[in-house]
């Protein structure tokens, strides 16, 4: 810019402000300020309401405490855990006192008793038992002829046998000599030499048949000896 060419600023004309115009401007300013105040109040209330909505559930959750008496698997496991105490000098384990319990053990089965052997009764054996281990007397039936035949004595010797037995015992199978202990039909002495039972007539006569033929040679010779000596 050269000297002498400066541009003079154009001055703006300022309209004069009348009292009525100033009143309108002031009124508008007050209205705008009231609107701003109401908007600020509403905004503040909105912030407070939002904060209350956020904080209220958390406060209620913090205020409500869980029930301490509720049992859970974890609480039961903790209660059942053994309490251990460890000292500085070593580990000392003190078991927690627990309730006692009993264990039932099934007993082993008892062995079955072995069956006892059957013992023939006196009626089946044809002899009468006596107490105290004494002689077993004969209780069966029969006749002299049946007994001699069962003992194997020849029928031709039955007369000799009948005479000797009639003199010795009177055909009483249970005849016993109280002084010598001779027993049975032929009075065997001692009675224990008769195989089987000395009081059984068949056993007694079977032994007598061997005795007569073995000592005297025959029943006839035994008969002759008895006639002479009155014993045999």
TrEMBL record:
It comes from the Bacteria. Keywords: Membrane, Transmembrane, Transmembrane helix. The chain crosses the membrane at residues 37-56. It comes from Microbacterium ginsengiterrae. InterPro entries: Lysozyme-like_dom_sf, Transglycosylase_SLT_dom_1. Residues 154-216 form the Transglycosylase SLT domain. This is Transglycosylase SLT domain-containing protein. It holds the Pfam family SLT. Residues 106-135 are annotated as: Disordered. Residues 118-128 have a biased composition (Low complexity).
